[in-house]
Amino acid sequence: MPPSELAPERVIIVGAGPAGLACAATLLEVSEMHVILVDAGAGPGGQYWRQPPPTDDPQGVDPEALRGLHHDLGTFESLRARLDEGRAAGRATLLTEHHVWTVVPTAGGYVVHAVDRGAGPGRERTVEIGADRLVIATGAHDRALPFPGWDLPGVMTAGGLQALLKAGDVAAGRRVAVGGTGPFLLPVAAGLAARGASVVGVFEANSPVRWLRELGPVAANRGKLAEGAGYAATLVRHRVPVHVRTMIVEAHGVDRVEAVTVARVDGAGRPQRHGLRRLEVDAVGVGWGFSPQLDLPVTLGCALAPDTSGTAVVQVDDWQRTSRPGVSAAGEACGVGGAALAVAEGHLSAYGVVAGDAGSGPPAEVAGLRAVIARLRRFASAMQRAHPVPAGWAETLRPSTVVCRCEEVSAGVVQRAISERGATGARQVKQLTRAGMGWCQGRVCGYAVELLAGGGGAATERLVSTPVPLGVLAHPPSKSAM
Amino acid sequence: MSTVVVIGAGIVGAACAHDLARGGADVVVLDRGPVASGTTSRGEGNILVSDKGPGAELDLARLSRDAWLELGDELGRDPMELEEKGGVVVASSPEGLDALEGFARSQRAAGTTALDVDDLRSLEPHLAPGLAGGVLYPEDMQVQPVLAAAAMLEAAQRHGARFVPGADARGAVLDRTGRLTGVRTGTGEVIGADAVVNAAGTWGGEVGARLGGAVPVLPRRGFILVTEPLPLMVRHKVYSADYVSNVASSDAGLETSCVVEGTRGGTILIGASRERVGFDTTLDVNVISILARQATALFPFLAGVNLLRVYRGFRPYCPDHLPVIGPDPRVPGLFHACGHEGAGIGLAPGTARLITQHILGGDGVDVARYTELLPDRFIEQEA
Amino acid sequence: MPSFAFDGSPVPFRDGQTVGAALVAHGTVSWRTTRLEGRPRGLFCGIGICFDCLVTVDGVPNQRACLVRARDSSAVTTQEGTGYAAE
């Protein structure tokens, strides 16, 4: 049968953030495949390019007013335009408010099962979408570490502060402390300061001296330096102090956060008990880097490998293909490294999908992408080395400090499971204490519990990636009409 | 003093270790993983008499239930969430109810307390209306299996037992007469033993074979659905009487029945499926959907309740669906305590009593009542 | 400006905002209490993975306030514990 009479192959891309959008754009350009982009959010962009939803209301949240929060929005707009062209031509489908709850291999490919929340609370339905190829671009979420008072309303992750700004144009408070480690703290603080919040300080746990050990990758990525300098200039303009080797060790308040205590961190990563300072705040954002979202690759049995910080990520070859046939991955799931890396990996993954087992594409283009990816991965590794979680982070914990927020399991209970019952990893702690068994299924506490239990960072298996109403599950899912 | 090596630190191994150590044996527990890392951590924690017809398995279930209550007294009920919650078996149709009540009569004759229930919703207000009727089994209980196994293992250690996690039992050491004198682990170390207990659950066939006493234990996959945390909505363990009226699924090899129960943590557990798919870990969405459908039919409020988690386990089953418990005539010194299928949690302490009697002697248990469970039944076939 | 009802009182919002964003802009940072300790919770991760921000919308409990779009027809209510009335 002549190739033009064969139905085009279908590819599902899970995640419409930088990596997913780039993959879709390139697939539309270099193949005849039908591209189905599935995202849990209200629109494309993922976290890096999180946008408010479209509105007709002139007083509604206006993406134009929020441009300054974004880095490289031009790339987003161009990728989105290419996707929209594909959709108009009937070559692409964008499913928003669709949260994939599992993926199952079938004879010729994969079936993606998603919860469609588009109709609002209590009106969910499930959808089943089949495809020949799968691209996982599910991104990452903030890594959180417990500390006394972290469960007070008003204490959020750094990413949470950013999401409020980018999607809602809301500053989480009037006096905000931003802490943790890593380059991400700067745009969060800068965004808040530009919006008019008083950022009482950025508290970076590590020392900039660590960057001196990474001069090669840093110098090779002058764009990143320029970006950082931009944020720094904003912080200077708004008189936001940046304190290094300092961390937030406690949040105070009765029903909401009212103050934080910050402490110096010594060279061994241990918070000091003298010289503590107390600052009044009404909102806090803490970021300790990001954890890739690996539910789907783990369910599919894709091989994982530890990244520079020891966190498991999806292992991919130089076409962004995973160890499972027909499954590719791009973006944070392959290793946290920012939007530019995700975009490059997304483009490369498209070439890997198109050519099946061989992989192809214009050699110069592919080589160029690989060079960018290599350079940005080196930078990402350097950042991980320069911004480790302080070794003494757990010294802030009191026995009563809640560790599992969902099930309200305290540090004392977790520690007893480890020291008295021999639990050697988050999974065992979970079985003995319920930590990780609540609504979030260990996404928030899992990293900390694994560190406390001395585990090796094994990825958690979640056969169900998002809550699914049983009544909806009981009925056969709608087959995708495409 | 006898040295006994127990292979497997699941619920059965932990129970055996506890009884043997209490009885004066010098116990070493081996497991290639940590405590309760096999099927024990995948169970609902059932301690049932309700699903057992007269025979050796029911006798063992009764013995074991009494042993669970003693364990609760000795180690504390709360730390293992041991609850005498009772079980309600419901029949949706009059034919199903007839069959169920007939079965209950035979169970009563064997000493089980089984009470016919006309007004199901007085026991379980959230059950769907229109069910034909049911039977209440007050003797059914629930426990948290991982906590229980950990507690028993720790109690064994207090009696001097040693636990070696990460130790894989690779082979047997025999003396000239062919008697077992030790177990060789993956590191090459040999642990001397007067007796070895194969409590390796779903891997009992493999471990048995390594020791020269193969037993036909195979995996039977089951999924369990876990809901969001809820207020107390389901008071007993509730399940449908499908097994009595022998309703088989149209999908050959897949059997499902409806089991719903609440937990201390507020979540509701929904089961139960049985499939012979080897050790295939792939999620089967069709099975999940069937379990959801059955559960919402029985408890309509579940329709609006969210599924948060699915886990699966591999029940260890023997071809006749009875566990294999007792000395292996082919290898003196080897004892099997595995193949409990979906009843391992409930039958563990009873199994431990039997095993302890076999190894250390005494007269606490009438082992003659349990000859149906001996490994001989598989070996005769080979001869 | 449109508003939704929150425990009966109007909370203004800008179209496109989530319920959570509108509540925080309004100065309300918690809208539920936890099951065991009765502690107040509101937004934490802001992107739908922590499930701390659960709130009842139009009678449906356990909706993530950081994901649900604010609408002027919505009735949003604080919730306690599991989000369901105790038995």
TrEMBL record, chain C:
<dbReference type="GO" id="GO:0016491">
    <property type="term" value="F:oxidoreductase activity"/>
</dbReference>
<dbReference type="GO" id="GO:0051536">
    <property type="term" value="F:iron-sulfur cluster binding"/>
</dbReference>
<dbReference type="InterPro" id="IPR036010">
    <property type="entry name" value="2Fe-2S_ferredoxin-like_sf"/>
</dbReference>
<keyword id="KW-0560">Oxidoreductase</keyword>
<dbReference type="InterPro" id="IPR042204">
    <property type="entry name" value="2Fe-2S-bd_N"/>
</dbReference>
<dbReference type="Pfam" id="PF13510">
    <property type="entry name" value="Fer2_4"/>
</dbReference>
<protein>
    <recommendedName>
        <fullName>FAD dependent oxidoreductase</fullName>
    </recommendedName>
</protein>
